């Protein structure tokens, strides 16, 4: 049984599908602070298999310990955490408490239950301002905001833990920019309030929920002046978790970029989204956003060499799948236009 923390979230629901489709048993733990259980009900519908859902907080060591023991968990995929850069500047201690302390509590529960295999969601944000591109795993680390520092501190903690005890096997996955949705259109990203990230905002403009996209800067040193990022399809990202889980046979830490290696500009994303959706996405150029860099994209060769993992879905596919999710669920999970044949969770 695999314990998936943050399982009801955007990436977690897609990882649930990847794990269930691979025939693994899953217990998903989430405190639903940024998600809805509907995502996991739909993940079950997609796979035709049920999982166990437990409403719990990773900061609650006893609750996590009880789950680890009750379901005979053998490995943990740890995605639970807060992720908004702006919020983390405003409330750094909340971020340190939830992300760093929460991970400490989880690790402590794992140690007590003798579960010592972990896959952790880190972020390309740990690299900070790129000294060179593409970013390989050896690039120096220097996160520029509290959210990024929570990921950095957790990475350091995991390295120390593995040095101290050779029984631990840890995969650190540095995600670039996850976008898109499962091809069924049943699960996808459902941010609360005005989206901070580009793709969900573009999708909400296309569907008519918002008026236009403000492009943060068109004077970067890039071909069209707008920022360049490494957008990666969330289904490709999810499959990377399976690959790393299968690969964690040796003790120690394996740190891997999950990106495509291709950079796409903000304007390119908007134009591609318009083309696949047939909708217009009005935009306006505005000031640069504090903390943004001109370009950020991965060197994904280590992932391919060590895990045999490679992203396969194009930007057009990312936009098309994101659009299918958004157009079928204009109000996200709250709209619930879909009537899914709800499979019951194995334990409610
Ligand atoms: N989406 C991105 O752009 C991105 C990029 C890099 C890394 N990540 C990391 O990937 C992970 C998943 O991100 P996501 O985009 O799916 O975000 P998300 O907010 O959709 O999912 C996170 C989930 O964790 C849950 N959660 C938060 N704190 C919790 C706690 N204390 N106990 C239990 N559950 C808790 C939330 O309710 C949510 O369901 C996060 O750790 C995030 O930092 C995301
Ligand atoms: O309303 C918007 C939102 C974004 N952008 C631009 O779109 C690009 C992508 O921005 P996102 O906010 O979608 O993504 P970031 O690259 O800023 O950051 C994301 O990816 C990082 C990893 O690369 C970290 O994981 C971070 O937490 C996560 O939010 C940037 O050039 C940004 O300036 C706009 O022009 N307008």
From TrEMBL:
It catalyses: UDP-alpha-D-glucose = UDP-alpha-D-galactose. GO terms for cellular component: cytosol. This is UDP-glucose 4-epimerase. Belongs to the NAD(P)-dependent epimerase/dehydratase family. GO terms for molecular function: UDP-glucose 4-epimerase activity. Its EC number is 5.1.3.2. InterPro entries: Epimerase_deHydtase (IPR001509), NAD(P)-bd_dom_sf (IPR036291), UDP_G4E (IPR005886). It comes from Bradyrhizobium lablabi. Keywords: Carbohydrate metabolism, Galactose metabolism, Isomerase, NAD. Pathway: Carbohydrate metabolism; galactose metabolism. GO terms for biological process: galactose metabolic process. Residues 2-257 form the NAD-dependent epimerase/dehydratase domain. Homodimer. The keyword NAD applies. PANTHER family: UDP-GLUCOSE 4-EPIMERASE. Its cofactor is NAD(+). Pfam families: Epimerase. Gene3D superfamilies: NAD(P)-binding Rossmann-like Domain, UDP-galactose 4-epimerase, domain 1.
